[in-house]
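RECORD TYPE: inverse folding
INPUT: structure tokens
STRUCTURE:
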């Protein structure tokens, strides 16, 4: 942890810089870019948030936050102090000494890395970078992305010019919906292309975060990020497979996990679920798998874990159907919680989509509710009074009316483990 006096000194240092020196431009104002923007404002930086989605740009321009963890009042305060402005003009990077890239890095239809959005962002900023600018990639990608993908694209764009751009990687570790860990108190990994770039990046993050961890190369930082999320993918798959094995043999997997969790070392608790979702856990490990294949080998543990997690919604669908089959001809299922995790409205890659689709393909009518989600792939939530034969809690979203459903005597399959004490609830 950086002691309080050093933090104050670091903030004072920022305030002594020239306007350009203390201006940071952040490409992408989503789940990663906007919290970083607000953390940088708090550290004394002048921030330009560059966003190319007209809807997000319009919302933020009127002081409305699109991200649950960033209160709209923070944006409004920062705007009124003149420390934050939203822009849709990428040429504004000229005004900044630090440019961070926080854009999506999804998978394509073959589930291989799709760097087209990152590439576009790099090509957009390249012509406008002033010599001496520090460019940091925070977007998750495979090892070598900074050195072999971003750097050449910037330099090709500026060929023949006498310009020096410093480049570093600082993978984002934000955990949306987490009230304990945030930009400031989550240690930040930093690896630059060369010592000077690393020094500059370490200095920048030291002003924003309590702890910065310097690593020897961008590839170490890029690979560490993939290790962190692959660790989660593999352990989630392990417990999901164990859930199926135990259910087949009538062993209570929750009691098994509780029992194993009494071991004070060498064990970390993971719990059964519908699968994995969001922009990170189902996606990032596939970058590592693709990279292994590109290098002539296989990350077989990732591929197997991915297959187990992808199969989980189908398994859950069967468990839901087992609860009603033979008891009803109507076959209506209520899904409770559709976001990929509690506390967020984000439905990207949610495994609940595959659960819904499998139920529908088995002839079930599906309704859904989620207090944080107003629209899910073009469909609207049902009323609480919607008649159903069975309910499934897919995501333990705060405010779910589980007690109401339980009191109506409707059988409930709880995939979250949170509602075990209510009547009519069976755990996954
Ligand atoms: N969401 C998370 O929990 C999380 C956590 C850690 C790391 N990451 C990584 O961070 C990166 C960003 O993820 P995110 O969740 O913030 O995505 P996001 O979709 O919430 O935000 C990205 C924003 O970038 C904007 N954008 C795209 N191209 C642009 C361009 N050329 N110019 C300006 N704006 C542009 C998009 O409109 C969008 O608003 C990804 O690589 C992701 O894997 C995400």
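DESIGNED SEQUENCE:
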């Amino acid at each position: 942890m950086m002691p309080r006096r050093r933090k104050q000194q670091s903030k004072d240092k920022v305030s002594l810089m020239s306007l350009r020196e203390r201006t940071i431009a952040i490409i992408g104002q989503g789940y990663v870019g906007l919290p970083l923007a607000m953390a940088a404002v708090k550290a004394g930086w002048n921030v330009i948030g560059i966003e190319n989605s007209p809807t997000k740009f319009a919302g933020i321009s009127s002081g409305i936050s699109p991200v649950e963890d960033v209160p709209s009042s923070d944006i409004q305060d920062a705007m009124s102090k003149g420390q934050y402005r939203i822009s849709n003009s990428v040429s504004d990077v000229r005004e900044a000494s630090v440019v961070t890239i926080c854009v999506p890095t999804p998978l394509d239809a073959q589930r291989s890395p799709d760097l087209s959005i990152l590439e576009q962002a790099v090509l957009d900023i390249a012509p406008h970078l002033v010599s001496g600018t520090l460019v940091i990639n925070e977007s998750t990608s495979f090892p070598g992305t900074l050195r072999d993908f971003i750097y050449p694209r910037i330099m090709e764009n500026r060929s023949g010019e006498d310009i020096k751009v410093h480049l570093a990687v600082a993978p984002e570790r934000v955990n949306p919906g987490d009230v304990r860990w945030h930009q400031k108190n989550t240690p930040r990994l930093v690896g630059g292309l060369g010592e000077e770039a690393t020094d500059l990046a370490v200095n920048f993050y030291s002003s924003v975060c309590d702890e910065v961890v310097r690593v020897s190369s961008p590839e170490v930082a890029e690979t560490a990020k993939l290790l962190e999320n692959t660790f989660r993918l593999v352990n989630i798959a392990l417990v999901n497979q164990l859930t199926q094995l135990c259910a087949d043999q009538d062993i209570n997997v929750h009691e098994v996990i509780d029992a194993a969790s009494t071991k004070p070392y060498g064990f970390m608790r993971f719990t059964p679920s519908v699968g994995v979702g969001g922009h990170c856990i189902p996606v990032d490990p596939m970058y590592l798998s693709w990279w292994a294949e590109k290098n002539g080998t296989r990350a077989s543990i990732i591929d197997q874990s991915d297959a187990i997690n992808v199969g989980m919604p189908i398994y859950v669908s069967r468990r839901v159907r087992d609860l009603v089959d033979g008891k009803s001809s109507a076959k209506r299922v209520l899904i409770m919680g559709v976001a990929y995790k509690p506390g967020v409205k984000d439905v990207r890659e949610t495994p609940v989509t595959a659960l819904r689709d499998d139920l529908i393909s088995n002839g079930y009518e599906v309704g859904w509710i989620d207090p944080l989600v107003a629209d899910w792939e073009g469909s609207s939530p049902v009323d609480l009074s919607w008649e159903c034969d069975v309910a499934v809690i897919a995501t333990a979203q705060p405010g779910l009316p589980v007690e109401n459903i339980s009191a109506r005597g409707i059988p409930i399959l709880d995939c979250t483990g949170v509602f075990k004490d209510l009547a009519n609830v069976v755990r996954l």
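NOTES: Residues 218-248 form the longest helix (31 residues).
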